[in-house]
Design brief:
- The protein is α/β, with parallel strands linked by helices and about 240 residues long.
- It has a single domain (about 10-235), classed as Rossmann fold (3-Layer(aba) Sandwich).
- The chain has eight helices and nine strands.
- The chain has helices at about 50-60, 95-105, 115-125, 140-150, 170-185, 195-200, 220-225, 230-235; strands at about 10-20, 25-35, 40-45, 65-70, 80-85, 155-160, 190, 205-210, 215-220.
- Strands 5-6-7-3-8-9 form a six-stranded mixed β-sheet, with helices on both faces. It has a three-stranded antiparallel β-sheet with strand order 2-1-4, covered by helices on one side.
- A hairpin with a 2-residue loop joins β8 (about 205-210) and β9 (about 215-220).
- The longest helix has 16 residues, at about 170-185.
Amino acid sequence: MIMRAPATDLPIMFTDAAIRAGEVTILGGLTLTIAAGTPTVLIGPNGSGKTTLLRAAMGLIPLTRGRISWGGRDSATAAHRAIVFQRPVMLRRSAAGNIAYALAAAGVPRAQYQSRINELLTLVGLAGMGERPARRLSGGEQQRLALARALARDPAVLFLDEPTASLDPAATKAIEDIVRAVSARGVKVVMSTHDLGQAKRLAGDVALLHRGRLIEQGTADQFFSEPKTDETKKFIAGELLV
């Protein structure tokens, strides 16, 4: 059984966090806490800052202003965190070879490779497909393989950036089932989506971003049944935020 690493990086706290690229503000003084527990889902229109927030939480982008802390520390290696991007790049090797690469990078003893590869392929619904070339898998299968690679690190926190954006309903359901299974094993999942139905199905808590600002955060039940801001009410109603 895959065991997650201790959740030493939680909570992840953004305090007045700002990121600028030249004259463009991508995150504008955002304060947000990502706590242990059920999945946190980030929603908002394209360009709202969701991807940038995930990358910053992973430690891939420095802040222009403000602070991020991981488990109360101002800096922390990403050993207990993993991220899957919207369009993951498959290595030019088999599905099993892609996972083996991730296991090697995580320092897993070679003697454990085969059992871990089999376990991870089974977890993501790719059992028996280890020898297939990764780049010949379908889009949904590649996304599941990307999840297996990320989970090879035994992360305490798993960031997912629009993981089902280009997938059909069956492939989307497969990814959502994996998210539920991973969360049930104690991994903190933080994912972005602009699919409100997906947010309702998966989220324990929801954060709405718009123009790099945090508009509202709350439990999924509260967020969808008792929105506090006009912008949240509009977004839930399917209106455009401009």
